[in-house]
Write a structure and sequence with these properties.
With 153 residues, the protein is mostly helical. The protein is built from six helices and two strands; from the N terminus they run ααααββαα. The protein is 62% helix and 4% strand. InterPro entries: HTH_MarR-typ (IPR000835), MarR/SlyA-like (IPR039422), WH-like_DNA-bd_sf (IPR036388), WH_DNA-bd_sf (IPR036390).
C-alpha cells in the first residue's frame, strides 16, 4: 500500500515540489541563456548583484547567499577577480575572510546584464495575476522556512 500524498494530485507532476522544481529549472535555463550572451554564469551574476548591495561580503557569505558551496564560491570569486569585475584584499584584515568589492568594470557589467535578467523575471512575474503576487511571495517564503527547519518528531 502506497503512502497517501500530502495533497490531492493525480501524479507526481502535480506535486508542489515537482512544480517548484519545474519553475526553478525553467528560470535557470532562461537566465543561463541571457547571461551566456554577457559572458557570465548565474552564480557570477548573483555574486555581482549581492556585492552591489553589500560591498565587502566574504566568500562564505556570498556562497550561502548564492546557494553554492564555499569551494564553488571561491572559484566564482576567482573568476570574477581574474575578469577584473571584483577586487579582494590579498590578506584578511581579521580572521580569514577576504572581503570582495565590485570594480568600476564590475559595476558596468552588472548594469549591462541587469536589463536582460530583469526581462526574464518580468516574463515570470507577468504570468501571475498582480493581485496574487504578494500572496505568492509570502507562500514561497513560508515554504522555504518550513523546509529549513528540522522535521517535527
Amino acid at each position: 500500500m502506497s503512502p497517501k500524498p500530502p495533497h490531492p494530485a493525480e501524479d507526481v507532476t502535480q506535486h508542489v515540489g515537482y512544480l517548484l522544481k519545474r519553475a526553478q529549472a525553467a528560470l535557470r535555463a532562461a537566465m543561463d541563456k541571457v547571461l551566456r550572451e554577457h559572458g557570465l554564469t548565474v552564480p557570477q551574476y548573483a555574486t555581482l548583484e549581492l556585492l552591489a548591495l553589500n560591498p565587502g561580503m566574504s566568500n562564505a557569505d556570498l556562497a550561502r547567499a548564492t546557494f553554492v558551496t564555499r569551494q564553488s564560491g571561491n572559484v566564482v570569486l576567482r573568476g570574477l577577480q581574474d575578469a577584473g569585475l571584483i577586487t579582494r584584499n590579498a590578506t584578511a584584515d581579521h580572521g580569514r575572510a577576504l572581503p570582495a568589492h565590485l570594480t568600476d568594470e564590475g559595476r558596468a557589467r552588472l548594469a549591462e546584464v541587469q536589463a536582460a535578467v530583469y526581462a526574464v523575471e518580468r516574463r515570470m512575474v507577468e504570468a501571475v495575476p498582480p493581485q496574487r503576487m504578494a500572496a505568492l511571495l509570502a507562500d514561497l517564503d513560508r515554504i522555504a522556512t518550513a523546509l529549513e527547519q528540522p522535521p517535527a518528531q
